Structures are given as C-alpha cells and as structure tokens.
Amino acid sequence: MITSFLEKPADSPLMPIPETAVNIYTPKNPFPAEVMSKCRITDASSPNYSWHVVLNLKGSKMAGKYRIGQSVGVVPTGRFNSAEFNYAHEALNNKIRLYSITSACWGDDWKGETVSLCVKREIAEDEETGELVLGVDSNYICDAKPGDEMLVTGPVGKSFLLPDNPLDYNYVFTATGTGIAPFVGMLVELFNQGFEREVWLVFGVPYSTDIMYNEEFLYFAERHPNFHYTTAISREQTNARGGKMYVQDRLEEHQDGIAPLLAQSDTLFYMCGLKGMEYGIYPWLYRIGSNLVNLPDGLTVADIQGLSRNAPEWSKIERARDRKRLFKETY
Ligand code: NAP
Question: Which of 71, 195, 200, 244 is the right S-S partner for 190, CB 3.0 to 4.6 Å?
Fold first, then answer.
C-alpha cells in the first residue's frame, strides 16, 4: 500500500489548490522529469501489469501548478527505436500520449514537486499474424527505472476538475480500468480538506487481481463512513440478469442510495475509463429519471435502453447531459 500520499504528514502545511494552468510545457519545450519511483499496483498474479509511477517536478514550472483531473503528456524518446520486438506502433514513436494525473495537486511528496501516473502495459497479439504487439508509450513508462529521465508536457485539460469549492458537493465517481487514475487524487484532495458530504466510487475491472489502489480505497473507507466504495469485477461476478457485472450494474444495485443523492443539484457525477461504460450508464441515468440528462427531442426513455453503440442518437444524448454536473473522460 502506498500510504504516504493518502494523508498529509502532521508537520507539513496544506498548500492551496492552484488556479488552473495549461500547457506550461509544450511538445517543443518539454520538461525532463526524473523517474523517482514506481510501484506495481495490480496483483503479482494478474496478467495486467499496471504501475504507479512518480515523476520528479522539482525545479519545473509545473511544480505545485497542476490540478487533479488534468493530464500530462509523455514523449517516448526513442528507447524502442532499435527494439527487437515487433512494436506495432513504432511509427508513432516520439509522439506524445496523454495520461491522467493520479496524484493530488500536492503530489506524493505533499510539496507538489512530484506528479504520479497510473499506467497499464498495453500488450496484445496481432490478430492476423499472431505477433506480439506492445504499446509504445505505456511500455516505455512501465519499463522506466528510478533515475531515468522522461520528457513531459502539460498539464492539459479544464473539463474534468473538482469544483472550486469542492467540500460543498456530493460526488459519484465511476471508473473502468486505468480510468481510476483521477479519482485517487480527487479522494486525497477531498479527505485531506475535511470533506464531510457523501462520495461514492464504483470501480470496474476484469478480475479481482486488477483492482488498482484497492488497499488505499479501503484505507479511506475505514476512516470515512461517508465514502462508499464498491467494485464491479466483470469476469468473476454476474449481474442480476446473469450477465457480466459492470459499473452500471453496481450503480443499479445501489440505486436506493445513489439515485436520491443524484437528484440533489449539489451532487456531481464523473465517469472515467472505457467509452463503453457510457452506453450502460446513460440508459441507467434515464431509467432513474436523473436530472443529469435531458431527454433529446423525439426519444423516449425506452428508446434509449435498446440503442446499439453506433446508433446516431448517442450524439444527441451526449449533448443532452448537464455539463455542469456530469463530467466524463472516456476513450
Ligand atoms: P480494463 O482493465 O480492461 O478494465 C475495463 C473494465 O471495463 C473491464 O472490467 C471491462 O469488462 C469493463 N467494460 C467493458 N465494456 C464495458 C461496458 N460497455 N460498460 C462497462 N464496463 C465495461 O481497462 P483498461 O485497459 O485499463 O482501459 C481503461 C480505459 O481508460 C482505456 O481506454 C484508457 O485509455 C482509459 N483511460 C485511461 C486513463 C489513464 O490515465 N491511464 C485515464 C482516463 C481513461 P470486460 O473486459 O470483462 O468486458
């Protein structure tokens, strides 16, 4: 368990949350950040290799200036140019990939001089040839060792932040896979500022060995009865209809607690992770009559339940969300 970043040490002051700044470092002017440490956050027995990677921002203009909910770019600097493997995305080398920041604005050091990322190795086989396919940037980051230098850009993003007065709201956070990243820092920021409202975290992963930051979330859940933490383990658990247990099924299971909370105008809803989760979460929001989503002209709640993923109606549904209360970062 990575306890040091969960609670502020008694002797260090709590820095104010910074104003939102973007593009302090650009692709033409990246910051060379040293890898300070890395820690495997999926179980040793999991075939998914995900790491919590801490980068040193000391001496950079980004130190103390990024906000949770933003992303940073990482430039793979060519480590794989002469790789012996078949890196399917080799042509994309040196192109920047964005990763959601995991750490609260205070970093893992409580001075804002570090930034952390949560990265899963992208490993697959080419469907036709059976050759190994490794994602360039994710493997670049997960291979890095303490002391290595990594070029970073950013921060970027203004639309997935906590509000300016975060303690005045309730929250429902929903995540799949590494989409969990921003919610780690958001919970750290909330609880270290004395958050007393209600917060739910519904987290979906394939296997129980893939639950990243589980001990950290349990640590918060033990100390904060207003934190409701639940997981949806898709390939081990089944929903009420006998299908895979997804985040939307867990939301439905807990809707007696969650729906009344969502009906309050001071409850914010965040989703982060796979795009597919939207196709389950939106229909559920319509089913419970949530005011986070309006009904687009010409559609009924029943129509929305049966829409296929490529239905043109999704763009209307997307436009009908309350953008001040429903935030999403899905890919
Ligand atoms: P993963 O480990 O494969 O977990 C995804 C989970 O979502 C699985 O349990 C999966 O179930 C489930 N799922 C699949 N389809 C779903 C649906 N329609 N509705 C609800 N749940 C569904 O995830 P991952 O590989 O880490 O991917 C996470 C995604 O988040 C990536 O697209 C990534 O780009 C994005 N993301 C990453 C970051 C970051 O900072 N790293 C930040 C934001 C977003 P089954 O596979 O069993 O069907």
Answer: 195
User: Is the beta carbon of 104 within 6 A of some atom in ligand 1?
Assistant: no
- Domains in the chain, CATH or no CATH each: 31-156 (2.40.30.10), 166-330 (3.40.50.80)
Q: Which pLDDT tens digit goes with each residue over 165-183?
A: 999 999 999 999 999 999 9
Q: Please state at what angle helix 214-223 crosses helix 181-192, rounded to 10 degrees.
A: 30
Kind of pairing between the strands at 199-205 and 227-233 = parallel
Query: Cα(277) to centroid of ligand 1, in Å?
Result: 8
User: Quick one: which atom of ligand 1 is closest to the CA of 248?
Assistant: 20
Cβ neighbors of 314 (< 8 A, separation 6 or more) are 278, 279, 307
**Mutational pocket test of ligand 1: of 176, 234, 252, the residue with most ligand atoms within 8 Å of the beta carbon:** 176
Phi/psi of residue 7, each to 5°?
-130, 135
**Ligand 1: which residue has its CA nearest to atom 15?**
276
Q: Using alpha carbons, list the distances in angstroms from residue 246 to 89, 230, 235.
A: 30, 11, 9
Q: Which atom of ligand 1 is nearest to the CA of 235?
A: 47
Provide the whole-model pTM: 0.95
